[in-house]
Specification:
Helix content: 25-40%
Distance between the termini: 41 Å
Radius of gyration: 16 Å
Order of helices and strands: EEHHEEEHEHEE
Low-confidence stretches: 1-10
Strand order of the largest sheet: 1-2-3-4-5-6-8-7
Number of domains: 1
CATH class: Alpha Beta
Strand content: 25-35%
Mean pLDDT: 83
CATH superfamily: Gcn5-related N-acetyltransferase (GNAT)
Length: 174
């Protein structure tokens, strides 16, 4: 079953990644159980047991922003991003999850996917974005810095002992 043929699934196309195998960025606005399972499986493939399950994804789809990167006419998800509003700063959004399928990493897809998401978030009126990243994840840190994020602090033991994270923030240009 193809994403664009499933009733009541993402119809809002945010943008296409030009010259990159027909990949399109969708803003997920609804779901069915099959699509939800595909999202969960994708997250588990990338993050293992730390991937988001159905109980976390449903409220994110309903009340946050969930973006999917997908090739036209294919079932497989190529990328996933989950964002939520910051309760303490109404002009800031938090990038909760961001991933590109393992077999597609290293092809600048993450860069292009995130740039399109940032453009859409800016259109929604946000002024800044924050995220956390493992202090040892050099490829991700490099990607975020290339896009314009800056490390603002280090959170020691964020997810338990020795799970340190950088907090990174990007201020959007007018």
């Amino acid at each position: 079953m193809q994403l664009d043929k499933v009733k009541n699934l993402p119809k809002k196309v945010v943008d296409s990644l030009e010259n990159i195998d027909g990949l399109t960025v969708f803003l997920v606005q609804d779901y069915n159980n099959q699509f939800l399972r595909r999202l969960v499986d994708f997250g588990e493939d990338i993050f293992g047991e730390l991937g988001m399950d159905e109980w976390g994804l449903v409220p994110q789809i309903r009340h946050g922003n969930v973006y999917v990167l997908k090739e036209e006419g294919k079932r497989n998800i190529s990328g996933l991003a989950i964002l939520m509003r910051d309760w303490e700063d109404s002009e800031k959004v938090y990038l909760f999850d961001f991933a590109i399928a393992d077999e597609l990493q290293g092809n600048r897809l993450g860069y292009h996917f995130l740039k399109i998401i940032i453009g859409n978030i800016k259109e929604q009126g946000f002024k800044r974005m924050s995220l956390t990243v493992d202090t040892e994840n050099e490829p991700a840190i490099g990607l975020y810095e290339k896009i314009g994020f800056k490390i603002t602090e280090t959170s020691m033991d964020e997810y338990g002992k020795s799970h340190d994270r950088y907090i990174m923030v990007m201020e959007f240009q007018e």
